[in-house]
Amino acid sequence: MITNCKNSGPMNQTLNIIRNIDREEFEPIIITLFKEDMGNSVIQRFKDLCPELYCLKMSKLEAVTRGRRKLKDLLSEVKTRFGSRSRDASVFSKFRLQENHSFSNSTELLSRRLS
């Protein structure tokens, strides 16, 4: 999960990780939160490498007001599809967005559970 695919060093590193990941063990799924600045985006490179890429296309205000619900709905949808074709969907089954977490705490929680 990333904010957007802005052309920057961290996004290039993420692309390198995805490019070199063992596809027998992992299937990368990219979720971007914000609208893309098409003049400074590498989203097409992500689309070329990732079987699944989801753009929530939220504004920063929308991320604060409705972001948790949109992310929860998307993760539920991805979990359903992911679980039906994966031998181990435990990362999604363990992850739950709880109502008492803020949006930033939820992304931190996801990061900890994925590591």
Give me a quick take on this structure.
About 55% of the residues lie in helices and about 10% in strands. It has about 120 residues and is mainly alpha-helical.
What's the Cα radius of gyration? 14 Å
Strand content: 5-15%
Q: Largest beta sheet: what is the strand line-up?
A: 1-2
Mean pLDDT: 76
Shape, principal axes of CA atoms: flat
Could you walk me through the main structural features you see in this protein, from its secondary elements to its overall organization?
This protein is mainly alpha-helical and about 120 residues long. It has one domain. Helix content is about 55%, strand content about 10%. It has helices at about 10-20, 45-50, 60-85, 90-95, 105-115; strands at about 30-35, 50-60. It has a two-stranded parallel sheet with strand order 1-2. The longest helix has 26 residues, at about 60-85. The protein is flat, with a radius of gyration of 14 Å. About 10% of the residues are buried. Residues about 85-105 have low confidence and may be disordered.
